[in-house]
Design a protein that fits this description.
It contains 8 helices and no strands. With 180 residues, the protein is an all-alpha fold. Helix 5 runs antiparallel to helix 8. It starts with a helix and ends in a 12-residue tail after the last helix.
């Protein structure tokens, strides 16, 4: 065996971990992507307008992330109204409980997000952006009397816009696939 064979790395074996089970799905048609983005922008701008009228922030980052799921992949369980509305409300409740019990520290927000995932899983309302709602509540301590109704309304706007969007474009995925 030569020195080159010892020091020069050979071809790396493909590991099972990195391979995955299937190729990534094909990209959607450009018109589908534009439609999804347009509906997302319209719904989120509506929330910005409502927030400006009320002098309250209605557009929080978790809602924008929810819009990406509802309009980008409307057939997923994460995008269904049960998960969007129920997930955000359950996670807000977890956030307020964690805030009351542990305070507004970053570690409490992280712990709360983990608890929120457990609660959503058990309630069959999986919605990943809702876990961020827990973090927002713990770190910012918004007044629940204002925040919860606005959060509910924002989630409802997303769902209603998703329903309208699925009916305005031929060939669009029917939304919602189920309510509860």
């Amino acid at each position: 065996m030569s020195v080159d064979e010892i020091t020069r790395p050979g071809p790396r074996p493909r590991t099972r971990v990195l391979r995955g089970r299937a190729p990534a799905p094909a990209p959607p048609a450009r018109i589908t992507a534009l439609h999804s983005g347009g509906v997302a922008a319209a719904a989120l701008l509506t929330l910005v307008g409502v927030g400006a009228l009320l002098h309250e922030p209605v557009l929080v980052p978790p809602i924008a992330a929810s819009a990406a799921i509802v309009y980008g992949v409307p057939a997923l369980p994460l995008a269904q109204p049960r998960s969007v509305i129920g997930g955000h409300l359950l996670c807000a409740a977890v956030g307020y409980l964690v805030l009351a019990a542990l305070g507004g520290a970053a570690w409490a927000a992280a712990l709360g997000a983990g608890v929120a995932v457990v609660v959503m899983t058990l309630a069959r309302t999986p919605h990943s952006p809702a876990a961020a709602t827990t973090v927002v509540v713990v770190l910012q301590a918004p007044d629940a009397r204002v925040f919860v109704p606005l959060l509910t309304g924002a989630a409802l706007v997303l769902v209603l816009a998703g329903m309208a969007a699925s009916r305005t474009r031929r060939g669009a995925v029917a939304y919602p696939a189920y309510w509860w």
